[in-house]
Amino acid sequence: MAYEKVTLNLKMKDVELVKPSKFTPPCILSLSTLDNRGIYNNHCQTVHVYRSSATRDSDSSFDHCHVFKEALSKALFYYYPLAGRLVKHADDGILRVNCNPNAENYGVPFLEAIANCTLSSINYLDNNTNTEIAKHLVLVPQDLSYPLVFKVTKFLCGGFTIGMGVLHAVCDGFGASQFFNTIVELARGRIEPSVIPVWERERLVGSITKQPFPLFPMRKESIAFSPFLNQTNSTNIKQYCFKVEGEMITKLKLSLMKESENENIRFTTFESLAAYIWRSRARALKLNNNGDTMLTVLVGMRRNLKDFDPIPKGFYGNSVMEANIVLKVSDLNEMSLYEIVKLIKEAKNVASTADYVKNTIDSLETNFKYPVNMEKSTGAVTVLTEWKHLGFMGENLDFGGNEIVNLVPAPCKMFASIEISVLSSSNKFDDVVPSMKGGVNLFTTLPVAAMPKFKEEIEALRTLSVDI
């Protein structure tokens, strides 16, 4: 059922602050060089959808919101920095976390809401037209100093959604998933987390260098632009979800093998889709041919790198590198897709080396006071991140007789950016659709006027020639 079939109305209680269940010491904690990137000082909002199990007896006395809130309080004893406040020191401009349990504003803002409908009436947020309804299921704070916020919405069917907002400066996607898993573990009865959190942000603090990397590998005067965005701020922009079926991915990979002419290079699903999505967005946005466009893919540092101190288990700070590929728009359109995939693979390999990691962190530290920011979005940049392996879905996240069936990035704050696209694993509804076996969900934000062309590009995957 489409979202438009029902009007979602919410009855909301007052926002309360959830504090750690036990005493935590007052302190001020430093963040890493990676945490202090200006683009990370924003909330990432996600909606976790829980369906009421039809197989269990209804227990009206079981309050999922109360159980979750209690588990959150217990989890905050271990993750107490998330109950603090982000502060920027006037002398150096560096972000730190102020943990003061005696302060009135100490704790995690928590909002409980009751919806006027069932989850099935809004299709469990499994919608391939747009995800606008997710905006109403998260708490969007006006004050960016809160590292963490929650909104739990109960529906008439007994299901509920958990809207989680995490300040990217404090957690990356892996860290956010680790924390969410901890809450559910405690809600399910564990005494302590299976993974004990580690702060240790000093591991990723850089040193001043005389030869820093360029932080933005495009010259401003050569950046491509989209006519859809070269207007006033009234441009209508929306986030959409596309279901990329397993067979479509298979055809894409077979076509790449055909283009490779038996060159013995293996490529992943992510690399294949990254090239295709980058080119498809450029075409949909009608970027000018003589301008530069950039693809940024995020590369994790949690695997051990030679000659680099390993990230400890339990670390929940930012630990990803950016692999950037810059091309003229004309080259992006004219090169074989296989050649683009090779460039992506090469950039990922370089970003996975200890030298690249060290030099990037040192360059960020050196140029901290001189960040490079684009004045406005031109459509030239595509940032692609993958959530398939973060651990946000799975039976281990079910609790209270409810099963997690979907995960959606809410199109606000960071995920409202036109640059960011997310590849996510299929949800529980996709699991029963044969064509979605091996498939993924793609969330991307574009001007409404550009979306028909992008949809056409994605649908073209069905008709790729795969004769080898």
Automatic annotation (TrEMBL):
The lineage of its organism: Eukaryota, Viridiplantae, Streptophyta, Embryophyta, Tracheophyta. It comes from the Eukaryota. This is Uncharacterized protein.
